[in-house]
Amino acid sequence: MTQQQSHPIGEQFGGIPLRLPQVAASLDQNEEWCEARIGNQWRRIRLHDYGEIYNVPNLYESLFPRRLKCCSPERVVGLLEEVLSDFTQDMDDLRVLDMGAGNGMVADQLRRSGVKTIYGVDILPEARSAARRDRPKAYNDYFVCDLTESEHADFGQLKAAHLNTLVTVAALGYDDIPTKAFIQACNLIESPGWLAFNIKETFLDEDADQTGFCALVRRLRRQGYIQVQAYRRYRHRLSVTGTPLYYIAMVATKRKPIPMSMLP
Ligand SMILES: C[S@@+](CC[C@H](N)C(=O)[O-])C[C@H]1O[C@@H](n2cnc3c(N)ncnc32)[C@H](O)[C@@H]1O
Question: Which atom, in ligand 1's list, is nearest to the CA of 54?
């Protein structure tokens, strides 16, 4: 059997019937797909085609947290809460920029933890539409923009919001948020400020990383731009073939603005 052939297993999850591929070898995360029954039709969808997923209400939730056991919004926000309690700081002191915000699952978690001010940013208009449709009260405001651009009209509004925390979940690396956008987002929050994010563990491995995040994080730590307060390896989710995917959740203090010369 090749990776292209499948014998999907039908299963009903959270209202959206899903079928996952049964393949001999595991698929890279970038190649993962599933079949979802939308209306009367089974549609094949790549897991990284977020726009297509957000357009179908409840599909993201049925697939990632329910079927594939993704726990990253809770894990990253939980780690941030733990660190803040060590610093005797309250979650309601935070003014958060949620980068790669998607349909608002992270904002939901932040609200449950007591955060009152949350601004979302995503590159996809479908993400903002889904957040507005599914979680209309999650964000104070939500911008569709590309943070790799050097200047964008929305950056001014984000700076004026005096944000002091950057949260980014399941959005760094792959074809998602690159190192340049991460630095720009770090600089949209004040110094000192908080950073809470997760990343696939191999992207922090010197020998395996091709995203540049391993080198960037190392430089930022060594040169005192950030101080890591918590670092936790955990199972982010299962792959479509049932293999555990491990990520690192990190909470750090951002101490000063980060120059673009830090880019690897
Ligand atoms: C796996 S989803 C995670 C969504 C949300 N953080 C969560 O945990 O539920 C990754 C998100 O990152 C967004 N993204 C990818 N590249 C981006 C970029 N350059 N700037 C902003 N968002 C980006 C995608 O559009 C997508 O909504």
Answer: 27
Q: Is pLDDT at 3 greater than 80 in this prediction?
A: no
* Cβ burial 99-134 (10 Å sphere, 16+ → b, else e): bbbbbbbbbbbbbebebebbbbbbbbebbbbbbeeb
Q: What angle do CA 162, 164, 166 make, to 5 degrees?
A: 120
Ligand 1, residues 29, 30, 48, 50: which to mutate, most atoms within 8 A of Cβ? Answer: 50
Nearest CA to ligand 1 atom 13: 100
Q: pTM of the predicted model, to two decimals? A: 0.93
Calculate mean pLDDT across residues 224-234: 98
Ligand 1, atom nearest to 124 Cα: 25
Q: Which strands sit side by side in the sheet containing 41-46, from one edge to the other?
A: 9-13, 16-20, 33-38, 41-46
Q: Which domains does the chain have, with CATH numbers?
A: 9-67 (no CATH), 72-262 (3.40.50.150)
Taking the centre of ligand 1 as the mean of its atom positions, its distance from the CA of residue 32, in whole angstroms, is 16
